[in-house]
């Protein structure tokens, strides 16, 4: 038996996956907003550290109860940017027993790719996996055999766009226009470095994409089984993103599949998704995106189990 655990702390969410020889045992996702205010202050707030500690303490208890033999924790955009990141790392070592690792955008992209394509038909490759997070978004293009053709992490995420640009509730037309221009600039960086035009299938991972899938399917409750490997057409997706951008955070929070901790930032995520759709349509290589519930966590546990 090889029971391993992966913990991923991003700008918005803290997530846990425990796997036993490839079989999912536990998968949890909690909004802790570690990156709240980091873009403006350069520091992780004490409130954010306290929220993260509380959830990580519960995860550590579950890991011990489940008899996990190996644990890896990674931390991404928020901790790469924060002046006081050592406070966060010391806390993770104290609570979890292992120190979180700050991974590069390149490694984050590669791990996300490995996890995201696990359940997809290999005949649909090459793939472009897009991991839209709170502070950054990773684009990685690769083959069905796992070979990476190119990857790029850009400073474009739902929390970053909300805190930096889309501050009104709901955002003003001017804010949305500025956010769209910002997203277009980040995507131009991707196109300059990554062979996105080689991809036949585009795959969206992380909370913005999975929530959009739940909304598109009209789910009454968030159901990962229904969301995983669902496919969303761009024309239908645009209807939903426009509605989210035009709604207030209270209106978004009233929908049962939108997590209360995501309601105030998902409009920023929606603008990023629209920019991604525009990119793919210009390439004329696809008219839909596949949504995967598997991501960086699955990539980490697959490596842990093999080591």
TrEMBL record:
Q: Which GO terms describe its molecular function?
A: exopolyphosphatase activity
Question: Record's Pfam families?
Answer: Ppx-GppA (PF02541)
Cross-referenced InterPro entries: ATPase_NBD (IPR043129), GppA/Ppx_hydrolase (IPR050273), Ppx_GppA_N (IPR003695)
Q: Mind telling me which SUPFAM superfamilies this protein's record contains?
A: Actin-like ATPase domain
The EC designation for this entry is 3.6.1.11
Show the CDD domains listed in the entry: ASKHA_NBD_MtPPX2-like (cd24119)
| The keyword Glycosyltransferase appears for this protein | no
Under which name does UniProt file this protein? Ppx/GppA phosphatase family
């Amino acid at each position: 038996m090889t029971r391993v655990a992966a913990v991923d702390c991003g700008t918005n969410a803290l997530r846990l996956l425990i796997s036993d020889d490839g079989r999912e045992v536990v998968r949890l996702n909690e909004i802790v907003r570690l990156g709240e205010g980091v873009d403006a202050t350069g520091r992780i707030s004490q409130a954010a550290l306290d929220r993260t500690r509380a959830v990580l303490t519960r995860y550590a208890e579950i890991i011990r109860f489940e008899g996990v033999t190996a644990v890896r924790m990674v931390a991404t955009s928020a901790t790469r940017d924060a002046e006081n990141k050592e406070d966060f790392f010391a806390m993770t070592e104290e609570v979890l027993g292992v120190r979180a690792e700050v991974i590069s955008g390149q490694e984050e992209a590669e791990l996300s790719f490995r996890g995201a394509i696990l359940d997809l038909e290999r005949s649909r490759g090459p793939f472009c996996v897009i991991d839209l997070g709170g502070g950054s978004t990773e684009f990685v293009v690769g083959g069905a055999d796992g070979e990476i053709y190119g990857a790029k992490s850009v400073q474009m995420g739902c929390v970053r766009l909300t805190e930096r640009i889309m501050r009104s509730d709901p955002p003003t037309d001017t804010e949305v226009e500025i956010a769209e221009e910002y997203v277009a600039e980040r995507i131009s960086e991707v196109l300059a470095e990554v062979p996105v035009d080689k991809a036949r299938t585009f795959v969206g991972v992380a909370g913005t994409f999975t929530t959009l899938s739940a909304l598109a399917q009209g789910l009454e409750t968030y159901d990962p089984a229904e969301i995983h490997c669902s496919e969303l057409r761009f024309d239908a997706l645009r209807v939903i993103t426009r509605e989210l951008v035009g709604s207030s955070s209270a209106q978004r929070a009233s929908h049962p599949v939108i997590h209360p901790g995501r309601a105030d930032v998902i409009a920023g995520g929606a603008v990023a998704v629209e920019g991604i759709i525009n990119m793919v349509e210009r390439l004329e290589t696809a008219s839909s995106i596949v949504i995967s519930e598997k991501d960086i966590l699955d990539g980490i546990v697959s490596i842990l189990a093999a080591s």
